[in-house]
Amino acid sequence: MTHKEYKKMTDDRAKRSPTLLNCIKAFVTGGLICVLGQALTVLYQELGASVELSKTLSTISLVVLAGLLTGIGVFDVIAKQAGAGTLVPITGFSNAVTAPAIENKTEGFINGVGAKMFVIAGPVIVYGTFASAVYGVMYYFLLRGGLAG
User: Where are the domains of the chain?
Assistant: First the structure.
């Protein structure tokens, strides 16, 4: 069997992904997470927090809630149905930090939880920080006239 024949055979037998349905599920789920975040923001403002503080508390609440749902095994059930809708908002970042920590808790707090906590999220933090520094320098020199003056 040639490489081309093998590729055609695997392509023919591969299960087709319902792309449109997956996109709709992700959009709706991500939107619902954002609605929850907005509802929390309004709730905190009604309880007397300033606008900025209520936004911060809402973000923290979503991170804690996603971590809690990951810990009790509910987040994975939701993510299996919703797909990228749970991964894109900050809830996905919380899950990416919490899940490896929970999986490696038997190794102890140092070698397990501490060492494995950022296995998935670590590269995002590193490259996100690096990219923001590069964009900041580019912004300064190109848009703010850093070279001219």
Answer: 16-117, 118-149
